[in-house]
């Protein structure tokens, strides 16, 4: 059976309505850098700002040997975070991308997105189904035309789903596509690269998106659950246990045209 966690049918960008026109008509992705988000102060925790953004590693102190000259220090607790200064200049752009696995894991009631998204703005730009493939195609085309950007991540890959780690339990390396699970509610898909000529924000334009994107009010979008509905019975939701849901998903996925990532 195909892995439902590798099928994505929903891509969303939450924003204030003043930025909608430039996103839709120009495909403007305004990309701040890691230092911006690391230093950003939110009234709420785990929203936009993240003091752990851009970490290269995070270790459990009790599993490290700490030496000071000839002395070995015992009894260390907490975390030891490693950060390379050069990562602060990395530009990133974040969107919310939902997999079939996310929906299935939510159970028969469906997946409700967090109310915290309302604090990102009163508009939600939705790109769905095969239009996600087209969005990524336009993104890659725009990136290939830029002569002043480059990527150091995974053989030049510039976008990827973020993996979330437990801060207390994690002991090891991290990269630009890792965050701690306080932010897991964001289901973040991230674009990341560096500039070769300057620092600061990068305004990447990928072209008009009006043919593949829809605009909704944020409240209207997140107040309803996301569900997988059988095509043969549009009003009937999956009412069964997880095992049965997965069996039905195997049939459901074959009947839809999606990109397997």
Can you offer a commentary on this structure?
With 261 residues, the protein is α+β, with helices and mostly antiparallel strands. 20% of the residues lie in helices and 28% in strands. The protein is built from 6 helices and 16 strands. The strands form 5 sheets. Strands 1, 7, 8, 9, 10, 14 and 16 form a 7-stranded antiparallel sheet that branches. A hairpin with a 2-residue loop joins β4 and β5. The longest helix is centred in the middle third of the chain and has 16 residues. It is globular, with a radius of gyration of 20 Å. The C terminus is likely disordered.
Question: What features would you highlight for this structure?
Answer:
261 residues, alpha+beta, seven-stranded antiparallel sheet, three-stranded antiparallel sheet, 6 helices, disordered C terminus
Following the backbone from N to C, one meets helices and strands in this order, namely EHEHEEEEEHEHEEEEEEEEHH
Strand content: 25-35%
By helix and strand content, what is the structural category?
alpha+beta
How much helix is in the residues?
Answer: 10-25%
Q: In angstroms, what is the radius of gyration?
A: 20 Å
* Count of runs of 4 or more consecutive helical residues: 6
Largest sheet: 7 strands, antiparallel
Oligomer: single chain
Number of strands: 16
Indicate the low-confidence ranges by residue numbers. Answer: 234-241, 247-261
Q: How far is the first residue's CA from the last residue's CA?
A: 15 Å
Q: Mean of the pLDDT scores? A: 86
Overall 3D shape: globular
Question: What is the secondary structure topology, with strand pairs?
Answer:
Layout: E1 8-15, H1 20-26, E2 28-31, H2 34-39, E3 55-60, E4 66-68, E5 71-73, E6 79-83, E7 91-99, H3 100-105, E8 123-128, H4 130-145, E9 149-150, E10 159-161, E11 163-165, E12 172-173, E13 178-180, E14 188-195, E15 202-205, E16 214-217, H5 218-222, H6 242-254
Parallel strand pairs: 11-13
Antiparallel strand pairs: 1-7, 1-8, 2-15, 3-6, 3-12, 4-5, 7-14, 8-16, 9-14, 10-14
């Amino acid at each position: 059976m195909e892995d439902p966690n590798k099928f994505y049918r929903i891509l969303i960008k939450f924003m204030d309505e003043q930025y909608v026109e430039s996103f839709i008509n120009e495909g403007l992705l305004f990309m701040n850098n890691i230092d911006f988000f690391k230093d950003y102060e939110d009234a709420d925790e785990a929203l936009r700002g993240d003091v752990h953004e851009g970490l290269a590693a995070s270790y459990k102190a009790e599993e490290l040997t700490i030496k000071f000259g000839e002395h070995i220090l015992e009894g260390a607790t907490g975390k030891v975070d490693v950060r390379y200064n050069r990562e602060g200049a990395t530009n990133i752009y974040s969107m919310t991308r939902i997999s079939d696995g996310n929906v299935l894991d939510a159970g028969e009631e469906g997946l409700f997105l967090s109310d915290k998204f309302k604090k990102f703005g009163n508009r939600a730009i939705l790109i769905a189904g095969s239009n996600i493939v087209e969005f990524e195609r336009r993104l890659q085309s725009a990136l290939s035309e830029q002569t002043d950007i480059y990527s150091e991540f995974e053989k030049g890959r510039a976008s990827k789903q973020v993996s979330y780690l437990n801060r207390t339990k994690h002991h090891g390396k991290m990269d630009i596509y890792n965050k701690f699970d306080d932010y897991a509610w964001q289901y973040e898909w991230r674009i990341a690269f560096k500039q070769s000529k300057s620092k600061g924000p990068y305004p990447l334009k990928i072209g008009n998106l009006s043919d593949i994107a829809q605009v909704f009010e944020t409240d209207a979008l997140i107040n309803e659950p996301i569900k997988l509905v059988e095509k043969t019975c549009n009003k009937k939701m999956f009412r069964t246990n997880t095992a049965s849901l997965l069996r039905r998903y195997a049939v459901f996925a074959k009947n839809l045209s999606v990109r397997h990532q």
